[in-house]
Amino acid sequence: MRQHVNPLSRNFKEIERIPSLIEMFANPKLNLHLDIGCAAGELLLDLALDNTSWNYLGIEIREKLVKNAKLKVREREIENLYFIFGNANNILNDVQSRFFIENIRSISFNFPDPWFKKRHYKRRVIQPEFISFLANSLKKGSLIFIKTDVKDLFDYMDYTISIDSNFKTIDKEDFKYSESFNPNKVKTNREKYAFVNQLQIFERIYKKI
Ligand SMILES: C[S@@+](CC[C@H](N)C(=O)[O-])C[C@H]1O[C@@H](n2cnc3c(N)ncnc32)[C@H](O)[C@@H]1O
Known about the structure:
By secondary structure, the chain is an alpha/beta fold. It is built from eight helices and seven strands, in the order αβαβαβααβαβαβαβ.
């Protein structure tokens, strides 16, 4: 079991410079998907090669993983993928991020750290203030995807997003995955693990209205 990184630690208050969209992507006009807590970025590396009509941005709090993921982007000469190191809450709240938030079409929270103890709930990446920030910053029609194998965490995330009247749940049955950031439903690493171990997966999609 890996030790979870405490996102509230002082180490993450300072954030790295965020490049402009033109520095991050060959074509900054493409639809932009943001994956929060992307770990080593395997999902995004697969997606970026598969779907060259989208740009992908990953945020991860473990610096070494981001360094390695950036190396892979360079080695494979991928032009529609960028990784940022740091606490996603601080990064998105920073004034430097305004320009790319406006371009986001969808955000995924795939298997976020659960922080089971009540006194640690504040360390969960989805917080009411963060959702209200996204409600005020995302364009109408933007989508949020959540996925986890921890029922308690799912209930918490679902409640936190659903209580904000700017978001409405989308029926998964009616959802056109082929038009989304993940048309072939590529699985994340944790999702593959959950699948092999027959763990139940809880997921939901929300639309900014
Ligand atoms: C359980 S892993 C899931 C990784 C991947 N999304 C998957 O589905 O396989 C959660 C990841 O989120 C990262 N993380 C946790 N809190 C974060 C935060 N506030 N900002 C950015 N990344 C965070 C962790 O370091 C870890 O890599």
